[in-house]
Amino acid sequence: MKTLFIGGIKSGKSINAQKHILKNSITKPTYLATTEFVDAGMKERIDAHIENRGDDFETLEEPLKIYEVIKTNKNPVLVECVSMWINNMFYHSFSLEDMKKELTKILELNQDIVFVLNDVGSGIIPDNKLSRDFIDASGKLSQLIASECDEVYHTIAGISTRIK
Amino acid sequence: MKTLFIGGIKSGKSINAQKHILKNSITKPTYLATTEFVDAGMKERIDAHIENRGDDFETLEEPLKIYEVIKTNKNPVLVECVSMWINNMFYHSFSLEDMKKELTKILELNQDIVFVLNDVGSGIIPDNKLSRDFIDASGKLSQLIASECDEVYHTIAGISTRIK
Amino acid sequence: MKTLFIGGIKSGKSINAQKHILKNSITKPTYLATTEFVDAGMKERIDAHIENRGDDFETLEEPLKIYEVIKTNKNPVLVECVSMWINNMFYHSFSLEDMKKELTKILELNQDIVFVLNDVGSGIIPDNKLSRDFIDASGKLSQLIASECDEVYHTIAGISTRIK
């Protein structure tokens, strides 16, 4: 069973994805943290995330090779988040094709996975190319993930509405 | 009864919120205008808003202390809009905690209130800190408001879809 | 029958709009391409669009006077996309009133038309006036189109949800 939670920044998608996986798991789920680069602002967000999830999860950290981590894991996995992973992959010069391949392998696994992804494409088209490339990649990969997920939830103001 | 209308810029959320409160009020509702700073562009928007609402509302203006205004008001109140109020609170150096406290007090009132709020978190993460802080505050406060509202509507292209 | 597909950048709205019009047309539909300005990045997008639609459509190109093109066309028309047309109209100094008039004439035609439009208003309010004006026009015109459409679909992560 695969599930996608998509929504804007601070829409509440992460909290709702956590509640969702906890409610649906009979074993302790794994929290796969993809964050690689940490500044003060990030640290604060991460600490808030950690505080939110308490002891309910086992936490693993991997910024790039997430397929390996998920494949060797027996429990349901919360990928938090795909957007940060895309960011890391860009930074390390991986191509969109590389990202598609990695995600396709993950989507073929017979495991319970919940993906969290930032919706970044509903603002004005930005004037710098890197942002545009990121939006394009994020959009295409979100379509790829959603097409293989059993359930997709869109979150606004803390309310997750099932759209698939 | 508390209601939230959330949506992007020029999505039609304000017009629909006005129609909603007018349809559901037996007394003349109050239009609580939170705008503090007015330049030529804002003036034009405000005039368009005023023209839209005609004589259907009694208008009160308060950029910051909205709890006091709402509490001492007997009629249903349309808060137009929460985003501008957040903006004013930021400008006057109030903290997110201050904003949460003010909103929490409002949400505990036994009155009919319709909140209008801009969805600002579905674009690319902006590179300036003030914008990021605003998005964070807006997202957290929209979650707070939505959690206490009986009905929440998301508006796109003038169409308000109930999501709670 | 008139239909609007709205969604963010790379949300999948174009592909879904194409599938929708192909499924509902008994004659070969017309693909009305509104793109006027083409740089390398645009060229790549356009080629991807062309590859996606194959021989299923007859393609016509018109960046500005789309009413004339649609009126003289007998087959269902996919307007791809309204956002690019707004952009062109801005560039050539047409006013929002001009755009409203052109669209109103189109919406009064007794023809099958599918409109594709970018949702650009759910990010932070941009600090340059041209972007704000574009968002305002896009929002107002999307309301105009949606109000006259029989069906409106919002697309996220490749999933189009009917909202009207």
Automatic annotation (TrEMBL), chains A, B, C:
GO terms for biological process: cobalamin biosynthetic process. Its EC number is 2.7.1.156, 2.7.7.62. GTP binds at G7, G8, I9, K10, S11, G12, K13, S14, E61, E80. The active site is at H49 (gmp-histidine intermediate). It is an enzyme of class 2 (transferase). It catalyses: adenosylcob(III)inamide + ATP = adenosylcob(III)inamide phosphate + ADP + H(+); adenosylcob(III)inamide phosphate + GTP + H(+) = adenosylcob(III)inamide-GDP + diphosphate; adenosylcob(III)inamide + GTP = adenosylcob(III)inamide phosphate + GDP + H(+). One of its GO terms (molecular function) is ATP binding. It comes from the Bacteria. Pathway: Cofactor biosynthesis; adenosylcobalamin biosynthesis; adenosylcobalamin from cob(II)yrinate a,c-diamide: step 5/7; Cofactor biosynthesis; adenosylcobalamin biosynthesis; adenosylcobalamin from cob(II)yrinate a,c-diamide: step 6/7. InterPro entries: CobU/CobP, P-loop_NTPase. Keywords: ATP-binding, Cobalamin biosynthesis, GTP-binding, Kinase, Nucleotide-binding, Nucleotidyltransferase, Transferase. Catalyzes ATP-dependent phosphorylation of adenosylcobinamide and addition of GMP to adenosylcobinamide phosphate. Belongs to the CobU/CobP family. PANTHER family: BIFUNCTIONAL ADENOSYLCOBALAMIN BIOSYNTHESIS PROTEIN COBU, PTHR34848. This is Adenosylcobinamide kinase. It comes from Sulfurimonas gotlandica (strain DSM 19862 / JCM 16533 / GD1).
